[in-house]
């Protein structure tokens, strides 16, 4: 009835999560060469690559499990008999096992981005040259998981082996009831999200080269959006951006209840006459109730590893024999990596048990034994065992070059 522990590897490759896998790698080389031109040259080179990945998972589960049981072997009557009288009831037992599992999402995103190389060269040009190149690459990854679970588990049990009567008999009188047992096991596991993102970045293993040689006066070189970036007071360099967003939202409503009535008592053996050593006896069986409640809800695991734009990338710029009024607009690389993880968990759990166990309230009055001990009355044990376990709202987030999943977790 307890949840399984799932082993997860320490790496954040696509093998970490098997349910969803996204991989898109676009290798490319962009070369722009401007050689031996005259005056007033305007070149817009380089490239701009955008990778968008969107994963949306939404689950809704409404689960109702219920049991209503009535079992009766009692309520027997043996009155005003002459001779041996025996009332014996059999046992009665009820066992309910409820298991509910719902709403799990697993997402793996690996190896996304342009991974391109740009090479731009400007050689032997005249005056008034404008070169904008080495464009920016953007990688956007969005993962949204939403789970909602409403689980109701209930058991109502009424067991009776008692309420027997053996009155006004002449002879051996024996009344014996069987045991009455109720066992309920409730297990609920809902709302789990698992996300692994690794190796995401537009300029991963890329190389940008900008070379300017033997130009005239009034030369401006830089990135494609360099001038606009300067006016906006930004860095003004080549703009490579990686955006990673993971949003997990879980809501769980769990109600587990048990209502049990167990009776082996309330027996009557009155006004009996035992002859020749016979006794009047009442022996009741045991009355037991056992309930085990387990509720596990709302877990989020997020591992983000090896993301960004400087992993194996490089930027080379060289300027040789340029004229006057030479302007450089951010030939370096501006790296921007934004990672956002949002986890929201909500649970309303109710676990309740109402039990009534009875082996007493037996009567053995006004009996006569001519040779013996008279009346013998023995009750069985009455035991009630309750176990409640509720685990809820657990988040695990690791961000970094060595981010790894936990070695174990109660995933199902």
Please state how the strands of the largest beta sheet are arranged side by side.
2-7-12-18-24
Intertermini distance? 12 Å
Strand content bin: over 45%
The number of helical runs is 1
Major sheet description = 5 strands, parallel
For the record, the count of structural domains works out to 1
Run of helices and strands: EEEEEEEEEEEEEEHEEEEEEEEEEE
The overall pLDDT, averaged over residues, is 77
State the shape. rod-shaped
Computed CA radius of gyration, to the nearest angstrom: 40 Å
The number of E-state strands comes to 25
How would you portray this structure in words?
Helices cover 1% and strands 61% of the residues. By secondary structure, it is mainly beta. It has one domain. The strands form seven sheets. Strands 2-7-12-18-24 form a five-stranded parallel sheet, with no helix packed on it. Strands 3-8-13-19 form a four-stranded parallel sheet, with no helix packed on it. The chain starts with 5 loop residues before the first strand and ends with a strand.
Briefly characterize the structure:
With 412 residues, the chain is mainly beta.
Brief descriptors of the model:
1 helix; 4-stranded parallel beta sheet; 412 residues; 61% strand; mainly beta; 5-stranded parallel beta sheet
């Amino acid at each position: 009835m307890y949840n399984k522990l799932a082993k997860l590897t320490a790496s954040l490759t696509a093998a970490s999560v098997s349910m969803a896998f996204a991989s898109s790698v676009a290798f490319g080389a962009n070369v722009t060469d401007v050689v031996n031109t005259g005056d007033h040259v305007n070149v817009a080179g380089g490239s701009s690559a955008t990778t968008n990945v969107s994963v949306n998972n939404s689950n809704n589960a409404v689960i109702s499990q219920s049991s209503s049981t009535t079992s009766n072997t009692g309520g027997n009557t043996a009155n005003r008999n002459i001779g041996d009288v025996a009332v014996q009831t059999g046992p009665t037992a009820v066992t309910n096992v409820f298991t509910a599992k719902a709403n799990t999402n697993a997402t793996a995103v690996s190896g996304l981005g342009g991974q391109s190389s740009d090479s731009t060269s400007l050689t032997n040009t005249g005056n008034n040259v404008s070169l904008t190149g080495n464009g920016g690459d953007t990688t956007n990854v969005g993962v949204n998981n939403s789970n909602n679970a409403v689980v109701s588990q209930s058991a109502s049990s009424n067991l009776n082996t008692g309420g027997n009567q053996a009155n006004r008999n002449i002879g051996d009188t024996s009344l014996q009831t069987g045991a009455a047992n109720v066992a309920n096991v409730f297990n609920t596991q809902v709302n789990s999200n698992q996300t692994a993102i690794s190796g995401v970045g537009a300029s991963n293993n890329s190389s940008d080269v900008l070379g300017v040689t033997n130009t005239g006066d009034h030369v401006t070189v830089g990135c494609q959006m360099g001038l606009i970036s300067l006016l906006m007071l930004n860095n003004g360099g080549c703009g490579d951006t990686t955006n990673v967003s993971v949003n997990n939202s879980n809501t769980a409503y769990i109600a587990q209840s048990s209502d049990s009535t167990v009776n082996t008592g309330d027996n009557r053996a009155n006004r009996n006459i035992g002859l020749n050593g016979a006794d009047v006896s009442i022996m009741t069986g045991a009355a037991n109730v056992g309930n085990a409640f387990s509720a596990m809800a709302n877990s989020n695991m997020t591992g983000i590893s090896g993301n960004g734009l400087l992993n194996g990338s490089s930027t080379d710029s060289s300027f040789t024999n340029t004229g006057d009024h030479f302007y450089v607009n951010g030939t370096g690389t501006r790296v921007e990596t934004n990672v956002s993880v949002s986890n929201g968990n909500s649970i309303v759990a109710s676990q309740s048990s109402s039990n009534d166990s009875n082996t007493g309230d037996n009567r053995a009055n006004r009996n006569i034994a001519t040779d013996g001990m008279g009346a013998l009355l023995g009750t069985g044990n009455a035991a009630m065992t309750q176990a409640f376990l509720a685990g809820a709202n657990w988040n695990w987030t690791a961000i970094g070059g060595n981010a790894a999943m936990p070695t174990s977790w109660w995933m199902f």
